[in-house]
Amino acid sequence: MAAPWEDVLRDEAAIQEAASVAVDAALLEGVLMRTEREPNASDVVNYAPFTLLPSAVPSTLFEQAYAVQQDFNLLVDAISQNKEFLEHTLASTIKVDDFTAQLFRIHMQVLEEGLAQSVFLGINRSDYMFDCGVDGTPALKQIEINTIAASFGGLTSRTAAVHGRVLKVLGKSEEASRLLPNNPSKGLALGIAKAWELYGSQSAVVMFLVEEVQRNIFDQRCVENELWNRNIRVIRKRFRDVFEKGSLDDAKRLYIDGQEVAVVYYREGYVPKNYDQQNWEARLLLERSRAVKCPDIATQLAGTKKVQQELSRPGTLERLLPGRTEAIARIRATFAGLYSLDMGEEGDKIAATAIADPDRFVLKPQREGGGNNLYGEELRQVLEKIRDSPERTSYILMDKIKPQPAMNYLLRAHSPLQVSECISELGIFGVYVRQDKEMVMNKAAGHLLRTKAIEHADGGVAAGVAVLDSPYLV
Ligand code: ADP
Ligand code: MG
Ligand code: MG
């Protein structure tokens, strides 16, 4: 899996020069982030962290990840429409996890009232690592699927140009020409535009629901720009704005500041800290509305770790996707071992196994955004403490994926340049639009490669651990 630039990795002068070119290229291309000190101002910005060099990715696994994306889109959509499955799967979790319980309550309330929404838009990102099996052959294993606020589709549309420049500077023009084109922001925008069109009101806007702290605004602006280019008006609002100025009319059309909203694109609302009482009320208002929510609350629930674990049970995929034998086989081939910690014999047994051999597993709560999982000694301690308590059902266990590391330089503002042993995670963006029962769009919209030093077990780009990368197919 070695990349064809191992020879330059230790040429310090060449690397230094390439790094300074890389940083300027990133700024020029718009691989940008607001700073930690001024997260809501664009007066001073910096480059988003990225690898100096692209990372080698086996082409067969890359193609496999693309090939299964439409299947995952169908699966997520099917789960979101399956009330009984969500209810049954999340029953134990919502008894102990307040956040999931609150989402679930809104889901049930909206269903009882009757869905006003008839157009559905899903934007997800299925993430994978390349597991090195016993014989050393890498296999594609899904880490998770993100069904809400999956980010970096914008910035990653601009990283290949940066890596292309770096390779040229290093005398690798031939390799530079082999870097893949990639534009998830366009694909995401096409989905949003389709949903907007089907909503059917020329004067209605697309609302990006954004967090109070908006360091990653440029990633979102990439998608916004694509919409403006199509003459679709975009507004950016926070939950607080919705609480203060949002309302529904008799037909449950959503208005904010007097503007009708056709599509609500959530870049917010995926972790407990996004919510106070008013924000929960705002969320409920949005969910009750006719506007296309991306995602609707059922689709957010379909992306929980508990659902992921339940999907790996024999027979579950068959029930959710009846008759789709080939899609099921493609999906299942990407599953790592996943284990329920529900109370009972099965949960007791796997808890004991994980306590005895924690390095085989990852312990995952129902959280997003990186930095929440437990590994090794910490996993053992926590699991030991909760092994006989229902609290354990707020977690799932997963086999730990062990990829083959590769050397690279991680470029981060204000950090010294040093070579690190790294592992990568590949994400594929999925976009789909459904009108009532009919799928009108189902696509893979591009990819994201993120890379981190092996000493960090967890964490994404936003969490400050991983950095943006580009795949170099080998
Ligand atoms: P989140 O929703 O917080 O992103 P993830 O399931 O993606 O949760 O886990 C966060 C990070 O932890 C991943 O990006 C990956 O680096 C690491 N990780 C998660 N699951 C595994 C696993 N099974 N094996 C190895 N690393 C994992
Ligand atoms: Mg996630
Ligand atoms: Mg993740």
Number of domains: 2
Q: What structural category characterises the helix and strand content?
A: alpha+beta
The N- and C-terminal alpha carbons lie at a distance of 7 Å
Assess the beta-strand content as a share of residues.
25-35%
The tally of strands reads 20
Helix content: 25-40%
Q: Mind telling me the C-alpha Rg? A: 22 Å
Mean pLDDT comes to 96
- Count every helix, treating DSSP H or I runs of 4 or more residues as helices: 17
* Uncertain runs: none
Looking at how many chains there are and whether they match, the oligomeric state comes to single chain
Binding site for Mg(2+): 144, 146, 368
GO molecular function: ATP binding; glutathione binding; glutathione synthase activity; magnesium ion binding
Subunit structure: Homodimer.
Domain Glutathione synthase substrate-binding: 204-302
Report what the structure shows.
It is an enzyme of class 6 (ligase). One of its GO terms (molecular function) is glutathione binding. It catalyses: gamma-L-glutamyl-L-cysteine + glycine + ATP = glutathione + ADP + phosphate + H(+); gamma-L-glutamyl-(2S)-2-aminobutanoate + glycine + ATP = ophthalmate + ADP + phosphate + H(+). The structure is a single chain. The chain is of the alpha+beta class and 474 residues long. The protein has two domains: 6-336 and 401-473, no CATH class; 337-400, Dna Ligase, domain 1, CATH 3.30.1490. 38% of the residues lie in helices and 25% in strands. It has 17 helices and 20 strands. Strands 3, 5, 6, 16, 17, 18 and 19 form a seven-stranded antiparallel β-sheet that branches. Strands 7, 8, 9, 10, 11 and 12 form a six-stranded mixed β-sheet that branches. It has a three-stranded antiparallel β-sheet with strand order 13-15-14, with helices on both faces. Strand 11 (259-267), helix 11 and strand 12 form a beta-alpha-beta unit. Helix 1 (12-29) packs antiparallel against helix 6 and helix 4 packs antiparallel against helix 5. The termini are close together. The model has no long low-confidence stretch (mean pLDDT 96). The chain binds adenosine-5'-diphosphate (ADP) and magnesium ion (MG) (2 copies). Adenosine-5'-diphosphate (ADP) is lined by residues 127, 143-144, 336, 362, 364, 367-370, 372-373, 398-401, 425, 458, 460.
